[in-house]
Amino acid sequence: MALGTVTASYELRFDTGRVCLDLLATTHPGERLGSVDALRAWITGAGLVPEGTPLAHADPSWLDAFRELRAHIVPLVRAPGSPPQGPALSRVNDLARSAPPAPRAVPGADGTLVRRLDGPPGRDALIGAVARDAVDLLTDPAARASLRQCEGDNCPIVYVDASRGRRRRWCSSEICGNRERVARHRRRTAALTRA
């Protein structure tokens, strides 16, 4: 994949409602952060940096750091009824201490203001931004109460249910919801042919 190219939408998803949960979604249905290029695409797609921000300085240590953060966030959001404690919470808190990349408003090609970063973002600054999002999620009672586990078969994705009535069942209506509707149709068709 060329630098700056975003992978196909089925590979990287940004529909969980939080950047920290989008990071968790990079494990399903398999490892989506399999290369530094994929991580660069995820960082841009998640909105951690403005489109076109150079990330050529990212190296394999970035992959390790993002995967480590992801592993610490998992137990904190998968048990929404219990207070998160232990080494995972301690590590997320430590990582959240790093200052996020500094944004600037600069004139774009057409004269309107666009967001740019003050300089190339560092790994720790980007990790800190995701960890800070996790801390914000974990400490916001309304957002935490809206955490849902996808009801799709074997789908581990956790998302924030911001739907009207808070009745969203799937991480994505187009992906898991569609699979469920197809499976339901097949069950009805099979029942009719047996009858």
Automatic annotation (TrEMBL):
Biological source species: Streptomyces althioticus subsp. attaecolombicae
Short name of any one Pfam family annotated for the protein: zf-CGNR
InterPro entries referenced in this protein's UniProt entry, alphabetically: ABATE (IPR010852), ABATE_dom_sf (IPR023286), Znf_CGNR (IPR021005)
Superkingdom of origin organism: Bacteria
Residues covered by the Zinc finger CGNR domain: 147-188
Name of this protein: CGNR zinc finger domain-containing protein
